[in-house]
Every structure is written in structure tokens, then in C-alpha cells.
Automatic annotation (TrEMBL):
Keyword Nucleotide-binding appears in the UniProt entry: yes
Pfam families: PilZ, PilZN
Keywords, sorted A to Z: Bacterial flagellum, c-di-GMP, Cell projection, Cilium, Flagellum, Nucleotide-binding
Residue intervals of the PilZ domain: 124-234
Gene3D superfamilies in the record: Electron Transport, Fmn-binding Protein, Chain A (2.30.110.10), predicted glycosyltransferase like domains (2.40.10.220)
Organism: Thiopseudomonas acetoxidans
Superkingdom field: Bacteria
Name by which UniProt lists this protein: Flagellar brake protein
Stretches assigned to the Type III secretion system flagellar brake protein YcgR PilZN domain: 17-120
Keyword Nucleotide-binding: yes
């Protein structure tokens, strides 16, 4: 069945993002989902790990957590160029920094501020568009089924025609990757849908008492599918209007 978001199952051509709106949108998705960044310095074998801890669109800046291992500090202090790679549900994003980071703290933890990259490479390897949920139009999902003694609710971070990512304010959810929750409810601004979902990824962050879950919609009927796609399309249009251009 053809849909609004059916662009084929093969890899999509990479895109070069250059506008602040496009770059900001991708950085915020990495921040909101606490996704790891793989970092390398040209000519050096060691690979490093970090996270985005803040994004400042007004100043076109992002803050990175301390690099692990910390041997990267001397390279950063010397202003060495480094390359960053991250993955967002089938999309590979990479960019480079050619500047010395500005040391600061956020909530008492050290970080380094950098200017937005001039360009970002965005390679979508599957055809499904994933849209961030608008903060002032929240959406949520309640997971329920035979595998859960009590339902678990969380707010949507983003959604596509095939699944969604969810933030849950508890580290004790009893959710398991690969488990099916067949009596779940997706609550969107324009209404709710009853559907079955599969937990693909479950990330428990004990120190923050939260859980982040990647869900895939499971064997939804045609009416439900069209309602989900309509919502994703609405979010896509809202994002373009707010940012004053194309999201990707």
C-alpha cells in the first residue's frame, strides 16, 4: 500500500544541511533523546564518546559533555579539528568542528561550547520521515497488554509512520526490548488510537529516574495507519512553518 511517507525501503541519497534551522532541529533531536556521539580526530586511532548537553539556537551554539576517554582534552585545548557522527533511528548524521571549545559548566558538570557547524551531512537510510512532537501540543502513549501488570504511560518525543520514541518519568517500568504490548493507546492532540506496539529499544537512566523507549507500531490496520500518517504530516508542516523552511 502506498503512503505519504513511502519513499522505498532502500537507502536515501545523503543531504547536506546548511541552514541554522535544519542544523538546530537535528541537534535538538540528539539532545532530547540523549543519543551518543562518536568522535574522532583526523590522524589519530583513538575514538571518543560524548553527548550533547545543551543547544542554544539564538547563539547558534551547542555544548558537549566531557569526552571519554579524557585524553581528548589536550587535543581540544589545542583547537584540533574533530569529526562527529551520530545515529537517529536509521539516519546517520555527521559534522566537523574546527574551533577551540569554550569551557563552562551546566548544572555543575563541565562541558565545552562550540558554534554550530557550517554544514551537517544527513543520510537517511530508510524512507520513513520522523517528526519531533511539538512541546505545546503534547502527545503521549499508554503501554498495556498481557506482559504488564499495570499500564505504563509516557510522552512522545518523536513519531514516524512506523513507530515513535517515548520518554517515561520512571526508571522502574518493567518494559523489555522485543516485548509486544497489544492493548496500547496513542493519545494525539486530535484524538486517540488503540494499537499494538513492540518495544525495540529500552534505555533506563537510573540517575535521572527516567526511561526512554523506541517503539514500533505492530500490524496496524489501514484506518489507524492513515491517522498516524496524518499526524506525522501535520507535525512536519508545523516544523517547516516554525523554522521558516524545510526541516530536512
Amino acid at each position: 500500500m502506498s503512503t505519504l511517507f513511502d519513499e522505498g525501503s532502500g537507502p536515501q541519497p545523503p543531504k547536506i544541511l546548511t541552514t541554522p534551522a535544519e542544523i538546530n532541529g537535528n541537534l535538538r533531536t540528539l539532545l532530547n533523546n540523549n543519543l551518543p556521539l562518536k568522535i574522532r580526530f583526523p590522524g589519530r586511532e583513538q575514538r571518543y564518546l560524548s553527548y550533547i548537553v545543551a543547544v542554544d539556537r539564538e547563539n547558534a551554539s551547542l555544548a558537549l559533555d566531557e569526552f571519554v576517554p579524557n585524553t581528548a582534552l589536550r587535543f581540544l585545548q589545542n583547537g584540533e579539528e574533530f569529526h562527529v557522527e551520530a545515529h537517529i533511528d536509521g539516519v546517520r548524521i555527521n559534522w566537523s568542528h574546527h574551533q577551540t571549545g569554550i569551557a563552562a559548566t551546566i548544572n555543575g558538570h563541565p562541558c565545552l561550547w562550540f558554534k554550530f557547524p557550517e554544514e551537517m551531512r544527513h543520510h537517511q537510510r530508510r524512507g520513513t520521515f520522523r517528526a519531533n512532537v511539538i512541546p505545546d501540543q503534547p502527545a503521549s502513549i499508554t503501554l498495556a497488554g498481557n506482559a504488564l501488570a499495570t499500564p505504563v504511560s509516557g510522552r512522545l518525543l518523536d513519531i514516524s509512520a512506523t513507530g515513535c520514541k517515548v520518554h517515561i518519568d520512571s526508571a522502574n517500568t518493567h518494559l523489555k526490548a522485543g516485548q509486544l504490548y497489544e492493548s496500547s493507546s496513542l493519545i494525539m492532540p486530535h484524538g486517540s488510537l488503540t494499537l499494538s506496539v513492540e518495544a525495540r529499544h529500552v534505555q533506563v537512566i537510573e540517575e535521572k529516574d527516567i526511561t526512554k523507549v523506541g517503539l514500533r507500531f505492530h500490524q496496524v490496520d489501514g484506518v489507524t495507519q492513515r491517522n498516524i500518517e496524518r499526524y506525522v504530516y501535520q507535525l512536519q508542516r508545523e516544523a517547516r512553518r516554525d523554522e521558516g523552511g524545510e526541516l530536512f
